[in-house]
């Protein structure tokens, strides 16, 4: 398994996945839908899978003495690593934003612990919708990304809208007031748990779909 993950980074990695990590700096933009920065991590994964299809990456990998289940798990672990790195990069960016006294985000959710928790839920939904569909048919990658993209942006619209109309989001989560830090950390913990559960579900379902697929 470790060798397969190493292969993902040496042979399958698309350069945009690395470039999109820098998009965490979008959190410094005043009045911007910050969840968009995390959408690009999904776009990088899509480019990796698309390039892999053109290069027959999965066919090559399946010729190796490895199980089809491990082929799927290695790709999902690869995606998770990039997603977690981006979340980690966002932490110092948020601290820098606070030190610069940039005005509050009028467009939606403020960059804080609750935002990261909600972003993790979004990433988990992407993993569940994209990978489970992609591993039904590795030759048709456009539809899985379209479906996951629609769900991702629907989620973004919903949570951003709640910052304006739901009192709990508007008054407690969507700010940097230290009086509500416990609530925001609680949302972060919930987001971490949801991300883990959604990604594990994505992995299990994707493995089952790929095993049934006749290459």
Description:
The chain is mostly helical and 215 residues long. It has one domain (2-212). The protein has helices at 2-12, 15-19, 36-54, 57-62, 68-99, 113-134, 142-165, 167-173, 181-212. It is elongated and about 55 Å long.
Throw out a few tags for this protein.
mainly alpha; 215 residues
Please count the helical segments. Answer: 9
Give the N-terminus to C-terminus distance in angstroms: 21 Å
Mean pLDDT comes to: 90
Structural class label: mainly alpha
Shape category: elongated
The amount of helix comes to over 70%
Number of domains: 1
In sequence order, what are the helices and strands, one letter per element? Answer: HHHHHHHHH
Radius of gyration (Å)? 18 Å
Strand content: under 5%
- Would you report the number of β strands? 0
Chain-wise SSE layout:
Layout: H1 2-12, H2 15-19, H3 36-54, H4 57-62, H5 68-99, H6 113-134, H7 142-165, H8 167-173, H9 181-212
Helix pairs in contact: 1-5, 3-5, 3-7, 5-6, 5-9, 6-7, 6-9, 7-8
Summarize the structure.
The chain is mostly helical and 215 residues long.
């Amino acid at each position: 398994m470790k060798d397969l993950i190493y292969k993902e980074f040496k042979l399958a990695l698309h350069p945009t996945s690395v470039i999109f990590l820098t998009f965490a700096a979008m959190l410094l933009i005043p009045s911007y839908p910050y969840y968009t920065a995390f959408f690009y991590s999904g776009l990088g994964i899509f480019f990796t899978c698309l390039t892999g299809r053109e290069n027959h990456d999965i066919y090559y990998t399946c010729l190796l003495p490895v199980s089809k289940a491990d082929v799927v798990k290695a790709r999902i672990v690869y995606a998770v690593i990039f997603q977690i790195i981006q979340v980690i990069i966002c932490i110092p960016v948020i601290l820098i934003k606070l030190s610069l006294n940039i005005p509050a985000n009028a467009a939606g959710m403020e960059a804080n612990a609750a935002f990261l928790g909600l972003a993790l839920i979004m990433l988990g939904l992407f993993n569940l919708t994209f990978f489970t569909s992609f591993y039904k048919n590795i030759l048709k990658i456009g539809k899985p990304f379209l479906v996951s993209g629609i769900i991702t942006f629907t989620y973004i619209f919903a949570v951003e809208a709640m910052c304006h109309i739901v009192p709990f989001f508007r008054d407690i989560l969507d700010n940097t007031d230290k009086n509500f830090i416990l609530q925001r950390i609680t949302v972060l913990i919930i987001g971490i748990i949801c991300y883990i559960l959604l990604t594990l579900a994505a992995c299990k379902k994707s493995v089952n779909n790929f095993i049934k697929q006749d290459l």
